[in-house]
Design a protein that fits this description.
The chain has three helices and no strands. It has 99 residues and is mainly α. It has a single domain, classed as Methane Monooxygenase Hydroxylase, Chain G, domain 1 (Up-down Bundle), CATH 1.20.58.1000. Helix 2 runs antiparallel to helix 3. The two termini are 33 Å apart.
Length: 99
């Protein structure tokens, strides 16, 4: 039997936050599909690389927004509740993002 990973924590997002993040992901998904089409259509390497860099920048922008939301909501809440281990979790997450 296959074991599934289940996240122990969840976050309820406001409708505005959810929509902003989903819109970013939808645009990134479109950029990735565009990259695939460029490759299928034998586009010139530098043109593909420029588009890949744009997709990467868009994903970085998504990460920055999500991280900012996390710090302003989850991290602040946990610190106020005395759960200072959240800071260690945040630092660990940032290290993993920077690999």
């Amino acid at each position: 039997m296959e074991e599934k990973y289940q996240c122990q924590k969840k976050k309820e997002r406001s409708e505005e936050e959810y929509k902003k993040l989903m819109n970013r992901l939808n645009r990134i998904e479109g950029q990735i599909r565009g990259l695939k089409r460029m490759l299928e259509n034998d586009a010139y390497c530098p043109d593909i690389l420029i588009q890949a860099a744009a997709a990467n920048a868009a994903l970085n922008a998504f990460n920055r927004e999500l991280l900012s939301n996390h710090i302003h909501t989850c991290v602040v809440h946990d610190i106020k509740e005395g759960k200072e281990e959240t800071v260690d979790e945040l630092v660990d997450t940032i290290y993993k993002m920077m690999r």
